[in-house]
Amino acid sequence: MPIRERPAMKVNVHVSLKPGVLDPQGRAIHHALEGLGFAGVNDVRAGRLIALDVADDTSDAQLDEMCRKLLANMVIENYTIEKA
Amino acid sequence: MGFSAGVITFPGSNCDRDMAVAIETITGHAPARIWHGDATLPDGLDFIAVPGGFSYGDYLRSGAMAARSPIMRAVADAAGRGVPVLGVCNGFQVLTETGLLPGALMRNAGISFICREVPLIVENGTSLFTARYETGARITIPVAHHDGNYFADDDTLDRIEGDGRVAFRYAENCNGSARDIAGVLNAGGNVLGMMPHPERSVDPVHGGTDGRALFEGVMEGLSVA
Fold this sequence. Notes:
heterodimer; A: alpha+beta; three-stranded antiparallel β-sheet; 29% helix; B: alpha/beta; Rossmann fold; nine-stranded mixed β-sheet; two-stranded antiparallel sheet; 6 helices; 11 strands; 24% strand; globular
């Protein structure tokens, strides 16, 4: 079978805790930044970047389903999908 | 009459043997050991335990990968048929990620991993899992977790509290859990998830035996049914 180059698409999924959900890791990072002498940091929220390399005909609905079924936990997290 | 139990093992589970030993010690019957990649459960299981540990290295979120493993589809089907399912620690995380239980377990509010005995209040002593405890009883069970901070939105918390689905509360909140919740039942009452480890409190050499009554209650409840 001939090797066929498959057109690909880079997609960045950003997963973050919903507003109001306590983020102990963000708080610890905040304290550490203050400990290093950085002034003026009001708040820190830690999230996660998941970089996907997918076939370029992957639909928005499929990407959305990936996020809802696995990449984000909708009880505590929000996500945004960014096509690079 | 045998008591047919099964203990699930994922890559990274580390309390599966403790769970199996506890079940065998108390019921007199060794449970089936079930691998995560199996798509089916042994026929006729009376009780399924999802043990603690660090399934799949806690990748993505604690319990997230295990919840999508082949065996968990079979466990969810069995739970839907009314088979009792107990999830402890990582098992609790797996059950919330599977959607069998409401809410989520987040990083402990104090960041640190916690490994110690904690006092619990039995909030509902009428479930299959808690029938051998008195409602309101104070018991001591060990915890060992990093992600035990129970979270659900206020509507969900109101609902599960109103329906008597909080099985255990922390007498001293060790991890920031919403409303001190340590253990939650599903709507049918046949699925319990809890962060404390009852299987680590069944033999006097453990330093306590307050966990025994949970397994005894399940065994008795099933033999009466």
